[in-house]
Amino acid sequence: MLIRTGTEIQSSEITPRETYVNRRAFMAAAAAAGIAAAAGERAMRLAEPRGVEAAEKLALVRSPLSLTGDTPTPYEDITHYNNFYEFGVDKGDPARNAGTLKTRPWTVQVEGLVKQKKTFDIDTLLKLKPMEERVYRFRCVEAWSMVIPWAGYSLSEFINACEPLPSAKFIEFISLADGKQEKLPYEAGISWPYQEGLRMDEAMHPLTLLTFGLYGEVLPNQDGAPVRVVVPWKYGFKSAKSIVKVKFVKSQPATTWNDMSPQEYGFYSNVNPTVDHPRWSQKTERRIGFPIFRQRQPTLMFNGYSDQVASLYAGMDLKKNY
Amino acid sequence: MSRRWIIALKVVAHAACLGPVIWLLWRLYLSVTTDPGALGPDPTHTVTFFTGRGTLRLLVITLAVTPVRRLSPKLSWLVRFRRMLGLYAFFYACLHLLTYLWLYAGWSWAAIVDDISRRRFIVAGVAAWLMLVPLALTSTAWSIRKLGGKNWNRLHWLTYAAAISGVVHYWWGVKSGVKTPLAITVVLAVLLAARPVLAARQRSGHNARQAA
Fold this sequence. Notes:
The complex is a heterodimer.
Chain A: H1 17-20, H2 25-32, H3 40-43, E1 61-62, H4 75-80, H5 93-97, E2 107-112, E3 118-121, H6 122-128, E4 132-139, E5 144-154, H7 155-162, E6 170-175, E7 195-199, H8 200-204, E8 209-214, E9 217-218, E10 228-230, E11 243-249, H9 256-260, E12 284-287, E13 296-298, H10 306-309
Chain B: H1 3-32, H2 43-70, H3 82-104, H4 109-118, H5 120-137, H6 141-147, H7 149-156, H8 158-173, H9 182-211
């Protein structure tokens, strides 16, 4: 397997907080212009607290697996424009509603094909391995994209600590489903809990990140706190958030979106510009936080991680196994 | 309703229809000059939904004119706003189509053909726009005279078909779980149902007067 070693990410390349805190001034203007009816849902977001100033800092080491060319998307956009259906189907909902999520105490149960069942406390997981900064491309199946400075360590480190049996061929992630802390909206059509899965070799790939932080701070609730996975060469929904259980299994597990709409969302869901979503093209994407006439970018095979991951799928028909 | 009131209300209506477009253009200007966040995190998406929702809202308001007017003879002046509202609906529809052609299809004929041949929500949207074209073209007094009131009325029933096609386009375009098109769908359904009810009421009123 070929792992590209790029130059280290300079901290100066990360957008400083001062430049991204004022991004939502436009909603204020919308309300002031008196056309709140037209811009209704956006104006609503004016009143909510930012609630991220006090976020806990993480000690990070730099990773050669980080991107170096792309400027990360502003923190404000990463934390206020994302999908986390447990808190509502609108992309503003997670930031609005995730304040009720309690990330302590938090444990991750490990079961299935392992030497013995285990339960990891979140504070144990935070200290399991040195935390790295990984700047990755993020491509949503809805054809928008970001560049995100995540913090975490390779999922393989955690998997090794789980001691799976050789018979384990797939890994399943189960997200928190608690009606007391989350909205779990009925209209989303999802049967909770949210479930995702990876083939073992995908999960063991060094790029696959067990993620605890963002922009050098612990994850804000709305981005999947306190622990999630990030699989940068797959569409975003493959990267399960707020994980409470990990299961090692023999055969391909059921996954939420694939169950709901198999013709739209495959189990693999590798970013692939040659396989369109039935309702839109995947050839291009809209970069979040970019000016309108520069937003449209070509989508790259495996989201630009071909050199590292294409070998995982050698001989597979990616049009069938989308 | 006096002439002066009508003029005043027309000014208000023009401002209400143009205001959002001026706001959008202002934010667009800011977003490419001083404030990249002026149109939100995903400006293309913002403009798409702004113009699309604006079209449907104006179409439904246009369709509401006749039923609301029938509620009372005192409201008959409302009809003087119908053409203007309908033309603004078409204007918003054109902006929405322009957004698609420019920011999604990138003026590529191949991309447009590909979309139309494979995506039903695009077909529904294009169909709605195409239906609005003859309505906008025949919005002049000359056209009404030329076509005759009856034919003109018949042709303009297409407004309903365009609105239905537009709402279908909206439902097919959003991802599953999103229920934002529901409100406009309910309003349109009420307006569709109101037509025969109001017509029946008017007939029975007419019959009652004849019997008396």
